[in-house]
Amino acid sequence: MTARYLEEFAVGQTWGSRTVRIDEQQIKVFAEQFDPQPFHLDDKAACQSLFGGLAASGWHTAAITMRLLVESEVTPAGGILGVGVDELRWPRPVRPGDELHVESEVVEVRPSESRPNQGLIRVRATTLNQNGQAVQVFVANLLVARRTSLPEKSEA
What is the dihedral of CA 39, 138, 112, 4, to 10 degrees? Predict the structure, then answer.
């Protein structure tokens, strides 16, 4: 994939990702290490929770989303360099057997006023399950290199 510079991004551009299937073991392994709450680890406890069954940690969903973004057509020059996330939401839980993919849209492109060699793009990333239901939505603020040419040096 070709790296894209700030000038190659435009508001309204969209792209998707591949699909990944989430299983019970993945949910529990992630939870054991990073979010060891009963509704992520124990089927019985999860059934008695607000979730009514085993649910992946939102942070697990975020990590999966990041992997899918890195592997997608989002290829800013220099990599996906996040400087912040706005509006992070998990509208519904991710369950064992869910198949997730990400749909992304550029919502803003802005050259930096103080650093002429870079700019910022804001990208809304929506992670969807196999039924087309959003399981995570966020707006990422990404630092992107500009396609700039350095002025030629004059010989003295």
Answer: 100
Q: How many CA atoms lie within 13 A of 75 on its CB side?
A: 7
Task: Measure the CA–CA gap between 95 and 57, rounded to whole angstroms.
Answer: 10
CA nearest neighbour of 109 among 87, 76, 134: 76
Per-residue pLDDT tens over the stretch 4-47: 999 999 999 999 999 999 999 999 999 999 999 999 999 999 99
Q: What are the distances in angstroms from CA 24 to CA 21, 27, 36, 96, 145?
A: 10, 5, 14, 5, 40
Residue 44: C-alpha distances to residues 38, 116, 136 (Å): 9, 56, 25
pLDDT digit string, tens, across residues 127-155: 999 999 999 999 999 999 998 744 444 45
Q: Are 100 and 22 in contact (CB under 8 A)?
A: yes
Reported as a single tens digit per residue, the pLDDT across 91-120 is 999 999 999 999 999 999 999 989 989 999
Question: What is the Cα–Cα distance from 154 to 156, expressed in whole angstroms?
Answer: 6
Which residues are bridge partners to 104 per DSSP?
A: 15, 125
pLDDT at 147: 87
